[in-house]
Amino acid sequence: MRNKIAVLGAGLVGKTIAADLAKDHEITSIDISEEALRHLKGVQTIQADLGDLSNLKNLLQPFDLVVGAVPGFM
Question: What is the fold of 4-68?
Fold first, then answer.
């Protein structure tokens, strides 16, 4: 069964996690940076401000699992 997984953050760590998980799961990478998302291959992307908590809950609703790979200050 292919799980729907959201990876929050598309930086050095997030893009690696997304690429690895995409081998067996349906992955969506979410990041504020259009530039970071542009470099991802084989995953869906959503450009969004993860600091906007009112939108975050709705954004993550359709996913089975969420992986956080955002900077520590967040």
Answer: Rossmann fold (3.40.50)
